[in-house]
Inverse folding.
């Protein structure tokens, strides 16, 4: 163990004498370089005690003193302990500096299971100072402990192949170390090594060798931390990171709390309906199909339902408008509600026949297929004997603690689940998932599980209305499991949903001023009207003056294939009153103006005079046609070279483009 590979029985004896020295003498001895001399007069009244303990001996050729050969390793260890004081919160850097000085390269490799000292190995070594390592140490039987090959127990106590320390009696070492650890856990803070011997010590009247073996094993397995306190006295304590985890108060089970305002809007279904409404009017997509252009995305964002401002998009990604659009875009394809139309820069989204059926359904029916997908994902997949290792099973069991009709603190719920119901400790050893790394220490594992819970609640359940988010008087967030959430978790076979305005057969009116006013929210009618009317930029969505019928919008609808009867029928079916006569008349007039023409390319022959044009017509009458007295046009099926050849016989020479004069030379194909 480098600095700690010494006779700890002798160290305990020296520590008792060291504690009786004055602080000035301890400072001088710690500052003393190895193998250097110290004058007698520098030690004052502590001289006799140091000579009697054998720590110092006289130099033969002079009257000066030096550290004895037997105590030189102890002196080196004291100086090293002074270089590594106990930090208030030992972090990774302090730990790695400690391990680099005290552990050999073979011991570090044995601990982390790596053959190199890289960043991953360092993080994994730091992870050993967690209460998980101590818990596994306590629960591993003694005979298995000595032969274990787990990362935190890589070698036997006193094994000559891994340590130069003399062979301790390993029959008692594990039990002695456990008693020493229990004492350290019960008495927070450092305790002096010299006080570990005697009737009041954790080991009782055990020999110094047994205490030395327990100390050596605890330091080697990175469960204990040895240093010098402010008075330069040798002390030992639990690793600071380990002590902080063990001595913190237990997490309290979350309790119901009062809320001042709540939000349980199932905006995922509403956002998907907004997307389909926009797609019915033509929604451009980027050439690679990865998303929408900025202008179309901003227009779509303006149609989304507003959420409370206290739902912070920086903390909850699902609330951000861009994330809501991306989610609706993905779900539209998952549910087969949209398809691509056009190509290249004209690529767009088009609703499928299934989309019109989905829009025509009630809010509950629209939401159900989205819920069933999440319900299937939360279904436990592991066998019953491994249920405690299945994250989905643990999360469903955690949702069961959210009693209906009660709101719970969001942060308190996450902390309780991360500390008291965290399966990631055991999952790492049973299911080697790629994101369950072995080099994560306990705080990181708890943070990871809290993040998994936050993602489930805020990214998946909240947009579907499965949880109701609230806010207390002090501004903290709360969560409450709704009937939809109990259905997703599998606690109920069905769910009820308040359907505001559902089943309204007459959601809109058409005014004589060509304004389409929605009396009730109807995504189906809104998507239908969006195909032939212009959206009011300040109209929003849901209810109000949403659209206006214009000459341009009717002509564009006619171009897409809609007829006058299609437009009037769609308006009449959704309106309680007949379409005003002036509006119907103008719709018919505008639709009748639509014409479809084909634009075709052609080649022109500009002749010098009518006589030349007549000679060309005589030579190639079946391949050209007269436009004017001097301008002729090649028919679509005619080839330029054939017309030039026929005219050449009559003495009329047509100059062909340079590319057609010379035949293209075939490129020789390479063999490779």
């Amino acid at each position: 163990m480098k600095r700690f590979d010494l006779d700890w029985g002798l160290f305990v004896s020296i520590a008792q004498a060291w504690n009786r020295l004055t602080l000035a003498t301890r400072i001088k001895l710690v500052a003393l370089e190895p193998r250097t001399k110290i004058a007698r007069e520098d030690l004052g009244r502590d001289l006799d005690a140091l000579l009697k303990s054998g720590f110092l001996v006289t130099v033969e050729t002079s009257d000066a003193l030096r550290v004895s050969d037997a105590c030189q390793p102890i002196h080196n260890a004291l100086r090293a302990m002074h270089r590594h004081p106990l930090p208030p919160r030992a972090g990774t850097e302090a730990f790695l500096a400690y391990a680099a000085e005290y552990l050999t390269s073979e011991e570090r490799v044995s601990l982390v299971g790596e053959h190199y000292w890289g960043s991953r190995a360092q993080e994994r070594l730091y992870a050993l100072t967690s209460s998980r390592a101590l818990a596994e140490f306590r629960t591993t039987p003694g005979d298995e402990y000595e032969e274990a090959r787990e990362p935190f127990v890589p070698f036997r106590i006193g094994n000559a192949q891994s340590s130069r320390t003399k062979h301790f009696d390993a029959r008692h070492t594990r039990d002695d170390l456990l008693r020493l650890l229990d004492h350290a856990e019960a008495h927070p803070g450092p305790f002096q090594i010299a006080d570990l011997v005697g009737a009041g010590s954790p080991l009782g009247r055990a020999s110094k060798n047994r205490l030395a073996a327990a100390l050596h094993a605890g330091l080697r397995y990175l469960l204990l931390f040895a240093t010098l306190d402010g008075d330069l006295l040798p002390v030992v304590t639990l690793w600071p990171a380990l002590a902080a985890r063990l001595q913190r108060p237990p997490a309290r089970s979350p309790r119901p709390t009062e809320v001042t305002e709540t939000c349980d809007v199932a905006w995922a279904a509403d956002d998907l309906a907004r997307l389909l409404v926009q797609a019915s009017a033509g929604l451009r997509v980027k050439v690679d199909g990865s998303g929408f252009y900025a202008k179309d995305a901003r227009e779509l964002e303006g149609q989304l339902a507003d959420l409370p401002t206290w739902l912070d998009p920086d903390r909850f990604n699902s609330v951000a408008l861009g994330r809501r659009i991306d989610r609706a875009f993905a779900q539209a394809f998952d549910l087969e509600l949209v398809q691509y139309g056009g190509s290249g820069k004209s690529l767009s989204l088009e609703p499928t026949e299934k989309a019109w059926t989905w829009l025509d359904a009630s809010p509950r029916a629209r939401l159900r297929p989205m819920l069933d997908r999440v319900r299937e994902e939360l279904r436990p997949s592991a066998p019953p004997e491994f249920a405690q290792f299945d994250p989905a099973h643990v999360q469903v069991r955690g949702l069961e603690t959210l009693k209906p009709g009660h709101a719970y603190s969001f942060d308190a719920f996450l902390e309780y689940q991360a500390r008291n119901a965290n399966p990631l400790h055991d999952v790492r050893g049973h299911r080697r998932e790629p994101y369950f790394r072995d080099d994560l220490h306990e705080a990181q594992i708890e943070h990871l599980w809290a993040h998994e819970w936050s993602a489930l609640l805020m990214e998946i359940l909240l947009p579907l209305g499965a949880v109701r988010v609230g806010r207390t008087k002090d501004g903290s967030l709360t969560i409450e499991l709704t009937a939809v959430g109990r259905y997703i978790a599998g606690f109920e076979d069905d769910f009820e949903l308040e359907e505001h305005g559902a089943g309204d057969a007459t959601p809109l009116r058409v005014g004589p001023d060509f304004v389409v006013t929605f009396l009730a929210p109807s995504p189906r009618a809104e998507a239908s009207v969006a195909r032939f009317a212009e959206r009011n930029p300040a109209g929003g969505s849901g209810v109000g003056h949403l659209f206006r019928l214009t000459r341009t919008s009717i002509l564009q609808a006619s171009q897409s294939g809609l007829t006058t009867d299609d437009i009037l029928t769609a308006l009449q079916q959704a309106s309680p009153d007949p379409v005003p006569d002036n509006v119907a008349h103008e719709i018919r007039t505008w639709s009748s103006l639509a014409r479809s023409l084909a634009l075709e390319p052609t080649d022109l022959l500009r002749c010098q005079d009518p006589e030349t044009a007549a000679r060309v017509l005589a030579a190639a009458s079946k391949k050209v046609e007269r436009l004017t007295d001097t301008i002729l046009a090649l028919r679509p099926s005619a080839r330029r070279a054939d017309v030039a050849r026929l005219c050449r016989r009559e003495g009329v020479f047509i100059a062909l483009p340079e590319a057609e004069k010379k035949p293209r030379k075939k490129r020789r194909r390479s063999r490779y």
Summary: Residues 394 and 421 are 7 Å apart (CA to CA). The chain is about 45% helix and 10% strand. Confidence is low (pLDDT under 50) at residues 143-168, 428-436, 500-504. The radius of gyration is 42 Å.
